[in-house]
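can u do me a favor
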């Protein structure tokens, strides 16, 4: 079964406030078994325009990724995020089909 993912691109506008978001999102992420694959490491935009911080979270499946985003726990965290950052998030289903040779 294909995994589910959140891909987020973030500009932090209030670093102190964003710390509150990080603490709050941990509750939802633990509940839904999220696993960080990318968490604001070094990056270089090679095409297009993106925000400064990049995050990729992995979930057991697409339904779980959606459930986490829609959960009351994450909604509480999101209210903090809105006040401390500009953020684009997409929830996507992974691919588990054939790969190039």
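np, heres the sequence
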């Amino acid at each position: 079964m294909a995994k589910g993912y959140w891909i987020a691109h973030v500009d932090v506008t209030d670093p102190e406030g964003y710390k509150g978001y990080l603490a709050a999102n941990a509750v939802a992420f633990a509940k839904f078994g999220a696993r960080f694959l990318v968490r604001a490491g070094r990056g270089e935009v090679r095409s297009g325009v993106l925000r400064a911080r990049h995050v990729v979270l992995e979930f057991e499946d697409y339904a779980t990724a959606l459930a986490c985003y829609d959960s009351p726990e994450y909604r509480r965290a999101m209210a903090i995020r809105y006040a401390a950052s500009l953020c684009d998030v997409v929830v996507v289903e992974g691919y588990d089909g054939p790969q190039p040779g």
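The chain has a mean pLDDT of 96. hope that helps!!
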